[in-house]
Queue: 2 jobs
Job 1
Amino acid sequence: MKVGIIGAGQVGSAAAFALIMRGVARKIVLIDANPERAWAEAMDIAHAAPFAYANKVKAGDYADLCGCEVVIITAGANQKPGEDRLSLLGRNAKIFADIIPKAAAAAPTATLLITSNPVDIMTELALRLSGFPPCRVIGSGTVLDTARFRTLLGFYLGISPKSVHANVLGEHGDSEVLAWSNADGGTVQIDRLAQMVGRPFDAEAKADIDDCVRNAAYKIINGKGATFYGIAGALCRICQAVTTNEYAILTVSSHHAEIEGIKDLCLSMPSVVGKRGVHNVIFPELSADEHSALAAGARLVKQYTEQALSELSKL
Ligand code: NAD
């Protein structure tokens, strides 16, 4: 399968590397406003391919997206230390107004996989700008945050993160909701499981995990300037679900006609992902606090989405 990546910066190139090393893509096309950068990343990754799978990576232009099953969009500004994701909106919306119509025309049957931040709002903009059906415009959403949550729960409980079922819902951002109430391991609710393994949660342990998930990007950006390996793993996992028509449940961001009473916005919920993108969305049972946190996040995302759409209409 062929994957296009628009934006060959830190996230785009790390995603291309992950796709090659895991054999998820047979061909990858890297496109960037800086063609020398795209060429250099493609060459560097191509030289790793013989150690993994005999797959092809090249730099290209929009015409080279023809036949792509997935086009990943990572073009745009990233967070600087202390900056939140919402502050990137103005800059990245202008970039999307340029690149999304070109990507949609070149790969009209692809699934668009949006990563540029603020990802939920950028996913809604990509949906409007592409004219694609909503199921084929998805954001990486909280797939990465969910992985962070499962990793920390696994460390704490001394079990594999792969055996933990726990999701982060809503915005990929400061308002995200860690759904503790339905988290489990081995079908046992996470609080009971923690008692069984002799590591009961107190409020402080939960607050520590919440802080490490919610503020992971800020902490990593303070240390190394950007985050890219975690998201690259998440993008690779989503591509695998699409290209193998896996029907995997992943917390991607997608368009909702209504969520917590707020209409027409993109947010992450557990979603069945396969060849046609999002095939179905699952609404888990949540506690009253989780419902109200999800509603607050939905209101925030809606407010910024409307602002971005109004600015786009003036371009
Ligand atoms: P980066 O600066 O390393 O790369 C961005 C690339 O986009 C650059 O190479 C730049 O030349 C290119 N670009 C800019 N305008 C373009 C255009 N019009 N056409 C084609 N290419 C263009 O940034 P990065 O660290 O790779 O981050 C990229 C985006 O991904 C940011 O918005 C960042 O916030 C986001 N991100 C999202 C997640 C997530 O979980 N969703 C995680 C990490 C980063």
Job 2
Amino acid sequence: MTTPTLLPLSGRRIPTLSPGASSFPHHRATLRLSEKFILLLILSAFITLCFGAFFFLPDNSKHKRFDLGLEDVLIPHIDSPREGKHSSGQMVIHGQGRHDENRHREEVASLRDKIRADHERALQEAKEKLRKSREELQAEIQTEKTKVMEDLKKKDPGPKPLPPVPMPKVVGVSDGEPPEPDAKEKRDKIREMMKHAWDSYRQYGWGHNELKPIAKKGHSTNIFGSSQMGATIVDALDTLYIMGLHEEFKDGQEWIEQNLDFSVNAEVSVFEVNIRFIGGLLTAYYLSGQEVFKLKAVQLAEKLLPAFNTPTGIPWAMVNLKSGVGRNWGWASAGSSILAEFGTLHMEFVHLTYLTGNPVYYQKVMHIRKLLAKMDRPNGLYPNYLNPRTGRWGQHHTSVGGLGDSFYEYLLKAWLMSDKTDTEARKTYDDAIEAIERHLIRKSNGGLTFIGEWKNGHLERKMGHLACFAGGMFALGADGSPDDKAGHYLQLGAEIAHTCHESYDRTVLKLGPEAFKFDSGLEAVAVRQNEKYYILRPEVIETYWYMWRFTHDPKYRQWGWEATQAIDKYCRVSGGFSGVKDVYSSNPTYDDVQQSFFLAETLKYLYLLFSSDDLLPLENWVFNTEAHPLPVLHLGNITLPGSEPAQR
Ligand code: DMJ
């Protein structure tokens, strides 16, 4: 049907009809304009009325519309019985339809009642919950959480098994009973101290990173972020194992199996987590053969990888385990990365590639090595700070103590761990030590050899407790040093051991301070109050042990025993072992921290000092910087994924 074309109302012309209207009788086609206009007005008034009626329906009719909608939602699958569609598309109501409609309404009403009842029950439950105590509610939440976790575990097939690789030669992991009764007695005492430290942590700090032995509760530091990852458990495992404390080891293993989870929103130190956790887990795996340790080490390593996403590939100091976001400490030369941190990943990462067949770990650490090799070194020294954005050195400070120490250690140990095939690492170590000897190592007026700190072209005549580890490192690196200087380096190791022993011997407690000076008539003593503390550190004892292994000079056992007695006398409390704030005071105050490295390192080195050499022989094991021994990988016979075959 066609509609008439109308001219504007003001027009005077008679409208023409559209072509389709030409067949209408003439008198209709020629209706007068005024009549048409009136008809049109009536029609539009009628349409307006209908629209108005529709939009201004009373409220109850809206409810009806809602009810109908609800029915459609609740019973979408029931074809509406009260309305049927005629084939013409017109809506009709059947006689039977009325009956069905009533039944349908009843069903809807009963559903509505059910929903109301559900709401009331939920409300009632909420009221009851509010009446419960905080503890009751927490217990309920915990039970539900555990249930959800268990259900998830059941559904989760777990991590993919790793490819089998030949187990490296694992020898001398237990026993080591010394032939001398006196040494045996001392070793037993050290074992007892380990048990006291462990049992106290077990009782008061279980699952926390560390222990507050005075307050008798858990403790943590910012290196672990806000995490509760049982650092002491992981760090202590291998010491428990070699001491034959198998029940305790099993206890620790169970905790790790059930609780150690790295999907936590915590910003941790990449270096500390690597040396304590990955190192500890890898060693626990090699000693015990329990797969869980290897799997956990690999899971954690994956979480550390985002830290390498920097413009240079030099990792951030810290990474958030959940988000993967990394950053550096603000105090570290305007946000630089630290040599001793990014340079102390090699051993663990090479083992990760070996165990997983994944080249990524090896590639990350080799990239760091290559980048460093290309850089200019002021006076042949490595500054402690490197900016991961620009790839430039930060402040020109060099140290064999804090911030630099384990970088040099890992160069030497990379070579040893590769069965001496990684000659690039050995050469880098030799060159670095040569520059250190030239610029940092001096003899005091009193004849004590010390390692100072290089600060912008000036030597600070101060040595840190941390730098005392270098005595052991020089002795370990003596064999294989250039120009047949083996004797020289063994001697240098002995001199450092002597100096560090002096730093202990010149205190009231016979425990060493954090840093000591060789200046203005002072020899191996701390000056500043904030350098007089001892926090159960291992470095001096570590050097005694290496020197003992290489020389069997009884003085090293004697010095080790002096330290053992001092620790037992001044640091032992009923809740474990604590650091002390002033080694020059006969009445020291405690710092109330039992560091995890006390169990990982200090007690382990002491135990080894009084064991026979066939316990963890140095031909087969290389200790990481947290004293976790890793087996030598015979890379002459193995090619790591992502590496070239080793050249001898
Ligand atoms: C340990 O965590 C490691 O030995 C590290 O290399 C330096 N500091 C502590 C112990 O003092």
